[in-house]
Amino acid sequence: MRFLTVTLNPAIDLVGVTEILRIGDVNSIKTLSQHPAGKGINVAQVLRKLDVQVTATGFLGWENVGVFQQLFQENQISDEFIYLDGQTRTNIKITSAGDTTDLNFTGFQVSPEQWALLCERSQDWHERFDCVLICGSLPQGVSAEMFAEWCHELTRQGVHWVLDTSKAALKLAVAAKPILIKPNSEELQVLAGNSKLTTIEEQCRLAKKICQEYTQYVLLSGGEKGAYLISRHNDEIYHAVLPCKKVISTTGAGDSLLASFIAYFLDKHSDIEVALKHAVVIATLVVESSGIDWQSDEVKKRLPFVQSSHFLLNY
Questions:
Q1: Looking at the 3D structure of the chain, how many domains does it have?
Q2: What's the confidence (pLDDT) of residue 272?
């Protein structure tokens, strides 16, 4: 299959770890990695590691584009980014006591003309790609309303697209009917009108309603609780979890979960349960490392230890 990832607001991630993070004090941080990132770019990396052909697009700043171009060349990712004046932002991710604190900075400003260029380029995506994965936050200059209008246009054109974003962009764009969304519990709460969803049953019940109204699948990431797959086509809720040996950094784990599920489910034609188990293993391996990296033999070793189940909701 032919895949396209869209990263509208990429970043260079500076990832570090400390035993205790003290706000308002001097902290000693051990640097784990500094690498080009952004949700769609992370997804593209994982797809390539799973031997899936992928093209990447979105916006990048000219001044520090070299690290991104090197990543694309090394991973054989086709580059169709639109290059803007200025720098792509740097984000800081600090893991402490198993939790990751994100310091996400604002990046470049996308002009109306540059946004119009991306919209124009997207008009042939339904012919060129079997699946488009739109991932991450919106850059300055692109409102949630503009984004949602564009997503509606993709659906009208017949694009099969996946959505992984948050806040107002998620709330408005889900109505454009992507084939799959990948929220975590906080993002799902936005779709509930910020109502508190205290149990996994409540979260899955809302996800089932979203499937009935807007999308075919909800891939719900639950952190250490694993992942849940809710489908419009099946009343059962699928769950998979793999105990984590040690949390090094959660950066990129959700992107790895999404990309590996899509790769196994759509490209490798695995059934839902098999695809979900592989996705949970790969996401866990990413948490146990300091970047998007794992060995295929390690996936095979850990698969038998995945705890998987499926259940029906009580209404």
A1: 1
A2: 95
Instruction: Name the pTM for this structure.
Output: 0.94
Tokens at 315, concatenated: 């209404």
pLDDT at 41: 98
Which entry of 85, 255, 267, 293 is annotated as an active-site residue? 255
What are the backbone angles phi and psi of residue 277, rounded to the nearest 5°? -65, -45
Task: For residue 10, tell me if it sits in a domain.
Answer: no
- Does the annotation mark 130 as catalytic? no
Alpha-carbon gap, residue 240 to 77, rounded angstroms: 30
Contact 50, 73 (CB under 8 A): no
Query: 138 lies in which domain range?
Result: 38-87+109-312
DSSP reduced 3-state for 213: helix
Euclidean distance between CA atoms 274 and 270, whole angstroms? 6
Q: What is the pLDDT of residue 105?
A: 84
pLDDT one-digit tens code per residue, 61-79: 999 999 999 999 999 999 9
**Residue 7 covered by a domain:** no
Read off the CATH number of the domain in which 196 is found.
Answer: 3.40.1190.20
